[in-house]
Amino acid sequence: MKNSTMLRIVIFAAALTLSLGAAACDTSNKKLTAGNNTNTETAKPDTGSGDEADTGGVSDEEGEGHGKEPGEYELLEPGFMNGSWRVAEPTQDAPVAYFDTFQDEGDSEVTGDFVMGNALYEGGIDGQSGEIAVGSFDGTTLTLKWNPTTDPDEMFTLVATKTTEDHLQGKITADRNVELDYAVSVTRQMDDE
Fold first, then answer.
1. How far apart are CA 186 and CA 5, in angstroms?
2. CA gyration radius for the chain?
3. Which among 113, 58, 119, 120 is positioned nearest to 85, based on CA atoms?
4. pLDDT tens across 24-65, in order?
5. Mind listing the pLDDT tens digit for each residue in 93-131?
């Protein structure tokens, strides 16, 4: 008997809470009332056409002088290395890695992400992904450093020279695996590929 009485009290309290919450959230022009009917606060009248939402933001008049004015924003053009690139073994065209890189025109810094292919080590790092640790492009030479291994002290380095607008030639070396000296071809990936 005690459990059913307690359950009824909990259900009643929940229903009361929901009904009071619904009344307090009413956004119409009606008078808001509390349980004792003494609250005479009136909801803010809708001054818009109903098509625009009230975001609670600052009006255009109130916001003047805050932030940049239209036309003051600097548009940054993408640099040569901005895009998706496929690094492959040049004679068999086996994928070594894929890079999505970002560079602003006039800035040598290159940032981005990588996903490893299977041409470098059979099965060991295929599919490993992460961020490029360090990257630069001086207009001719691309240098990228990244670590696709579980060894925190390993770092792969790609150094490649621009040959055309969509192609670079170079090699990959590694800090700890000093025998690694792998010739690669770096090709821009087009949208339809």
1. 75
2. 31
3. 113
4. 555 544 444 444 444 444 444 455 555 555 555 656 565 566
5. 889 999 999 999 999 999 999 999 988 876 578 889 999
Three-state secondary structure call for residue 179:
coil
Q: Identify the residue whose tokens are 């670079």.
A: 168
Residue spans of the domains in the chain: they are 2-63, 83-188
Tokens representing 120 are 């470098």
The tokens for 168 are 């670079």
At 24, which helix (H) or strand (E)? Answer: helix 2-24
The three-state DSSP-derived secondary structure of 143-156 is EEEECCCCCCCCCE
Query: What CATH fold (topology level) applies to the domain 83-188?
Result: Lipocalin (2.40.128)
Measured CA to CA, the distance from residue 181 to residue 157 in angstroms comes to 10
